[in-house]
């Protein structure tokens, strides 16, 4: 069984920072591409960032470039999303997802087969 569990969400003021974690169990994380997605109420789920198996390639949605940083620590079987300079429009449920073959190209496809439960990020003054 493959499981992904997100954590690190919360309520922050505009300009603040959060670091999301995605912990994997039941599979070797280094075999998988990882994507971060988010979904605001009433909106389509959108890809935020992705990272290759080795971590050597990363990509970001235009809306988060230069503010978010994705990384992975395969030794810890985890992936992270550092979010800085947060804006109200960053509010949403953030999901991590894993795929063996889905390329790390933005905008991300939502066809990743394995998903976490999501963690809420709220940015408000």
Biggest pleated sheet: 7 strands, mixed
Termini separation comes to 40 Å
Q: Count the beta strands.
A: 11
Oligomeric composition of the shown chains: single chain
Going by helix content, strand content and strand pairing, the class is mainly beta
Q: H/E series, N to C?
A: EEEEEEEEEEE
* Strand proportion: over 45%
Mean pLDDT, to the nearest integer, reads 95
Please tell me about this protein's structure:
This protein is an all-beta fold. It is built from no helices and 11 strands. The protein has strands spanning 3-7, 10-12, 18-25, 33-39, 46-51, 58-60, 68-73, 78-83, 92-99, 114-115, 119-123. The strands form 2 sheets. Strands 2, 4, 5, 6, 9, 10 and 11 form a 7-stranded mixed β-sheet that branches. The termini are far apart.
How would you summarize the topology of this molecule?
Blueprint: E1 3-7, E2 10-12, E3 18-25, E4 33-39, E5 46-51, E6 58-60, E7 68-73, E8 78-83, E9 92-99, E10 114-115, E11 119-123
Parallel strand pairs: 2-11
Antiparallel strand pairs: 1-3, 3-8, 4-5, 4-9, 5-6, 7-8, 9-10, 9-11
List the keywords.
125 residues; mainly beta; seven-stranded mixed β-sheet; four-stranded antiparallel β-sheet
Question: What is this structure, in a nutshell?
Answer:
This protein has no helices and eleven strands. It is an all-beta fold and 125 residues long.
């Amino acid at each position: 069984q493959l499981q992904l569990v997100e954590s690190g969400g919360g309520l922050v003021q505009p300009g603040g920072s959060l670091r999301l974690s995605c912990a994997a169990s039941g599979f070797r994380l280094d075999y998988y591409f990882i994507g971060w997605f988010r979904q605001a109420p009433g909106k389509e789920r959108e890809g935020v960032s992705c990272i290759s198996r080795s971590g050597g390639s990363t990509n970001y949605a235009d809306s988060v470039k230069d503010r978010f940083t994705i990384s992975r620590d395969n030794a810890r079987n985890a992936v992270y999303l550092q979010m800085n300079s947060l804006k109200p429009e960053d509010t949403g449920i953030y999901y991590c997802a894993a795929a063996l073959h889905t390329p790390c190209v933005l905008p991300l496809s939502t066809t990743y087969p394995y998903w976490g439960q999501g963690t809420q990020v709220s940015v408000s003054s």
